[in-house]
Amino acid sequence: MPVDTVLYNAKIYTRGMIVEAGLAIDEGRILKIAKETNLPPASAKMDLKGNIALPGLIDIHVHLRDQQLAYKEDFFSGTAAAAAGGVTLAMDMPNNIPVTMDSKSLRERMRLAEKRAVVDVAFYSAFPKNLGEVRSIIEEGAVAFKLYMSEKIGGLNVDNDEMLLHAFNKVVEMRVPVAVHAEDRETLENMRRKMEKAGRRDIEAYVKAHPPEAETKAIRRVTQLVKKSGVHVHFCHVSSAVGLKAFLTAKNAGLPVTCEVTPHHLLLSSGHLKRYGTLTLVDPPLRAKEDVKALWKGLRQGLIDVLASDHAPHTIEEKEVESVWDAKPGIPGLETTLPLLLTQVNEDRLRISDLVRLASEKPAQIFNLRGRGSLDEGKRADIVVVDINQEYKIDSSRFHSKARYSPFDGWRVKGKPVKTFVDGRLVMDEGEIVAKPGTGQVVRWEG
Ligand SMILES: [Zn+2]
Fold first, then answer.
1. Is 354 a known active-site residue?
2. For the segment 196-209, what is each residue's pLDDT rounded down to a tens digit?
3. Residue 360: partners with Cβ closer than 8 Å, 6 or more residues away
4. Catalytic residue among 102, 291, 305, 310
5. Which pTM was predicted?
6. 230: CA distance to ligand 1 center in Å?
């Protein structure tokens, strides 16, 4: 019996090296990585033209929207953007309408994703009001909880550390991680009130209302709760030098904490705000050059665990408004992350092994996504093929996402995802989506 597919004439990133080889896929799994002559006969053969095959990206910070926010993005457009960007598994955030915060709302999102997604999708849940429901949410399949320290999303009073500790104690029994948006709500509110009182409505006022101290304070508060509960906390989008320092204090104390940074916090700084205006409004905001430097230093020293896009699509009308307080924070990132990172690889600012560790291997480990995150025999055939030498300009008008704008629009990049395979199926080919809605799978917590 021939196997399903053989990919040949490839450079394959496996076990920390790039090897010139081919790859045999059967029933969605990698059966063999070997010289082409040593691969079994296959029903289909595909020439990768000497390009590099990497494990598909696992983007752990994605807002796929849909339901009442489908005008911003839906499971099809969002996962098409993922496929175009080499992402084979997107982890969906819970700040939807309705908020994902119980087994019913989770089940409904899973049902829609199963009909519409073209890559795999896993789900975060916000905390329910009744913490007794934590178990049923995980049993329904949520792979992690998301806690916003910056505002109330879900059932918890985020100003009340005792209540948060209760929640963490519930989750630790089930051994799922909690991802935290670390900005202290009270600090944000006080600062914003000050700015509004002064009649400020400009983007610099927004940045001032989201100071690095808000990040530090939230990280310190949560660190105390980690110490008491033992829960694994993953800090989302760490953005400042002091925030990173607070995180590293927790990490160096041996606590079960990990962190992520985004491409926009690595490649843009507050200096870009004037040029791009509210389009570049993200939360946490773009920081000073010294902060960017600190993030890069942390990255090079191997202290950052994950790179994630924080793909947060809105309509252009929601972005370009008079008062910054009305603007929606967030930018699309699924289609720019990999090209931007490959450009960093080409410029020797990032090693390809770091890229794979940060965007595939570590995400799979942290969220217990078995059989994923690396290319090896027996693993899932979730693959992105990249042309490392292709130079082009980012053109947001061609995004698959409904959010067709980007602060990176017009940036010259080098390195392009040219094919994406999910579960052994070709989903994206030269920028085109070739899979039908519903071919992506929902990935559930496996215990
Ligand atoms: Zn987010």
1. no
2. 999 999 999 999 99
3. 54, 55, 56, 57, 58, 372, 373, 374
4. 310
5. 0.98
6. 24
